[in-house]
Write a structure and sequence with these properties.
Two copies of one chain form a homodimer. Chain A is built from 17 helices and 14 strands. Chain A has 471 residues and is an alpha/beta fold. Chain A folds into two domains: 168 residues, Aspartate Aminotransferase, domain 1 (Alpha-Beta Complex); 253 residues, Type I PLP-dependent aspartate aminotransferase-like (Major domain) (Aspartate Aminotransferase, domain 2). In chain A, helix 16 crosses helix 17. Chains A, B: This is alanine transaminase. Chains A, B: Homodimer.
Chain lengths: 471, 471
């Protein structure tokens, strides 16, 4: 068996999620529990939590799937226009044909136009856009190409701690070296460039740091980076000749009124040609998050900047081995980047649906922060963006001992107890990485408001009991 | 840059296909050529060649995509029944939710029921079914888990020559050792077990052969293995303790009246418990081929037999890092394994459409074989199954010299000339592997009958000219 595969860990679907599945089966079999359902707050899966799909998106998808519907009066003209445009760009006018490995041409053009609008006119080139099978596929493909070397020349990949565990998993798989830089919990999980400097200097003793991964808005930490911070990071990447990976899948998920999303691409261009012609950047987006939450379609794209032509050639070759990303996911991505505009028939309904989802998420972000901070022994930074709370939990020494007796990380022990006693499934901080001796968990804010209130109340009650029990 | 990525080659979308794209752009720009369109006979992409999707499949997909249509009288009840069943098994009743990493439960049940029917009652267990992103994803994931070791203990993976180049590409990527066994062109590309013995013995000098890959029906070679041959292969795998990978994506594409598809799973069970409880097997299927040709949805499944529980755990973990296969592709796979049955409203139309596609393919297989064999300097084995002709071309010494002067493989030189002079894009045999000094190309038989006749006539004329030119 491949030892690098053995070394892979992925907490978001790890042992606690397997346990949740077992408990669900027991409930189905009629086994009595102190709760009647498992609430899967472990994964950012909006529609599984009851969020309704955006009507326009699904209308276009249905028209592309079954083009007979193009004659139906029940579908709006703007949806039909989008569907016709996608289909005319597909082989045989069908979603059932392979696309080019890089993705359907007109969809890459739409992505480039979207990026240009988003970034206030900074140009994007469709040749630099690659459609992907969700963002995970793009991230792992780029890392696969960049990693090389043995011994001290093994590639170092810098990732935030806490991180989204796709990064650590792919780094293990590729036998690269994970170089941790710590986000500053005392300071709303900010990224401090001095910490990047510390990390890269220490790493140079035992590997060759080549790649710097950034997640903004943060997962699991929910911070939104300031423009100043992004400039500092880009300057650092330029100094150290690091390839920047900007995971920006939560770009639509910014809730705090003091925060705005700034793309790395835009800031890079605005810093002038010394940066914009030299720093290598790949940025990632997805259909799975934002307001649409279309996880199942596995749509995504990446934009690459300053990629060496040889690497670009290798990228296309590598993508071609897997033929193409799912064309239905590409179509979903197209609708995300090319939504109805004012004057179009579907604009009003689309805007209403989008704002309803994002408005609710903003409410739930505030609600979660406030409620967690009322609980003794829990501290929660503001949820400026993304879809998760990542509160710090202060565990009594006796709980830590009890966990050790069960050969479990203390936060895993806590989360297992939470699951067993309340049915709420969250992911221990140890699955994302955290400073030694601190404990956290990640919980999504996706359940509907009333349900989320109940969940938070249950966590609070559990936590207070837990503290008493292990006092 | 990753040296293993650099070593990857994938001819089906390689330099000749890039050239085809350039020529298409030139035609669009109005540059005159001896032809008016490029015919992409390089890839098994049925719908791109004008094949219409199966109506029932797309109806169910549209219903799943936009469930409002469940109230529409324009959709048949049996399609609605399928759609409801799929949706009730999805999180939030939506294709937009992530599924379990192994795939939607009820779809895995339907796959197991299909396999049991196909194999005349040999049982299949849904726990052994993994839904995948096309078959390629399953094949590369299993290989990734199985490969290990360095130096003489590096894993050897046995593949047929000629092969489908996914295999060589993944082997390069994983830094495993490719162990070639040659199919017998003189004998309709049969697999001879003595050749397997030779290959494994020679390989043991420099690696640890662990995996045996079989493609049946063959790609690019189109042979259909006899039951006897499959028994011999299984016995050999048992003797040598090899993990069997059976690529059976063309299981519906058998044209020769003397041939039948036998699954490795069925034969394994019928050989008795010594084999059926010991030989490890993974077999693969896909929505992309057969009569449906739904390549763009990237649907597929694999069934694993006798997989060690530890490896099974690693498999689920590895799949979970990529979250899940596209749920729309899973739904497409469901309809392939759970089509309308006699008595259902859509049965007649479904059967007519299916038989029309398969009947046409059988006609085109015979037509292609017959026509190629009329051309001096071309020899083509019967196309017993799959979707390709892989004729041998006898190239004059002067042509081989001219190719060398251009630093090209002789069959690449031939295929480039064919493309430039006729617009027909086929893949040189060197991209699949062939015995030293022999030359071939792979051409799909997917164009509609009349167009295929024109294509074959053009290849014939080109070939005769080519022989004259380099005589």
């Amino acid at each position: 068996m491949n030892p690098q595969v053995k070394a892979v860990e992925y907490a978001v679907r790890g042992p606690i999620v397997l346990k949740a599945g077992e408990i669900e089966l027991e409930l189905q079999r009629g086994i009595k529990k102190p709760f009647t359902e498992v609430i899967r707050a472990n994964i950012g899966d909006a529609q599984a939590m009851g969020q309704q799909p955006i009507t326009f998106l699904r209308q276009v998808m249905a028209l592309c799937t079954y083009p007979n519907l193009l004659d139906s009066p029940s579908f709006p003209e703007d949806a039909k226009k989008r569907a016709r445009r996608i289909l005319q760009a597909c082989g045989g006018n069908s979603l059932g044909s392979y696309s080019a490995s890089q993705g359907v041409n007109c969809i890459r053009e739409d992505v480039a136009a979207y990026i240009t609008r988003r970034d206030g006119g900074v140009p994007a080139d469709p040749d630099n856009i690659y459609l992907t099978t969700g963002a995970s596929d793009g991230i792992s493909t780029i890392l696969k190409i960049l990693v090389s070397g043995g011994g001290k020349s093994r590639t170092g990949v810098m990732i935030p701690i806490p991180q989204y565990p796709l990064y650590s998993a792919v780094i293990s798989e590729l036998d690269a070296i994970q170089v941790n830089y710590y986000l500053d919990e005392e300071n709303c999980w900010a990224l401090n460039v001095n910490e990047l400097r510390r990390a890269v200097q220490e790493a140079k003793d035992h590997c060759d740091p080549k790649v710097l991964c950034i997640i903004n808005p943060g997962n699991p930490t929910g911070q939104v980076q300031s423009r100043k911070c992004i400039e500092d990071v880009i300057h650092f990447a330029w100094e150290e000749k690091l390839f920047l990976l900007a995971d920006e899948v939560y770009q639509d998920n910014v809730y705090s009124p003091d925060c705005r999303f700034h793309s790395f691409k835009k800031v890079l261009y605005e810093m002038g040609p010394e940066y914009s012609s030299n720093v290598e950047l790949a940025s990632f987006h997805s259909t799975s998050k934002g307001y649409m939450g279309e996880c199942g379609y596995r749509g995504g794209y990446m934009e690459v900047i300053n990629l060496h032509p040889e690497i670009k050639g290798q990228l296309v070759k590598l993508l071609s081995v897997r033929l193409c990303p799912p064309v239905s996911g590409q179509a979903a991505m197209d609708i995300v980047v090319n939504p109805p505009v004012p004057g179009e028939e579907s604009f009003e309904q689309f805007s209403r649906e989008k704002e309803s989802v994002l408005g609710n998420l903003a409410k739930k972000a505030k609600l979660t922060e406030d409620l967690f901070n009322q609980v003794p022994g829990i501290h929660c930074n503001p949820l400026q963006g993304a879809m998760y709370a990542f509160p710090r939990i202060f565990l009594p020494a006796k709980a830590v001992e009890a966990a050790q007796a069960h050969q479990m990380a203390p936060d895993m022990f806590y989360c297992m107890k939470l699951l067993e006693e309340t049915g709420i499934c969250v992911v221990p901080g140890s699955g994302f990485g955290q400073r030694e001796g601190t404990y956290h968990f990640r919980m999504t804010i996706l359940p509907p408001v009333e349900k989320l209130k109940t969940v938070l109340q249950k966590v609070k009650d559990f936590h207070i009991n837990f503290l008493e029990k292990y006092a």
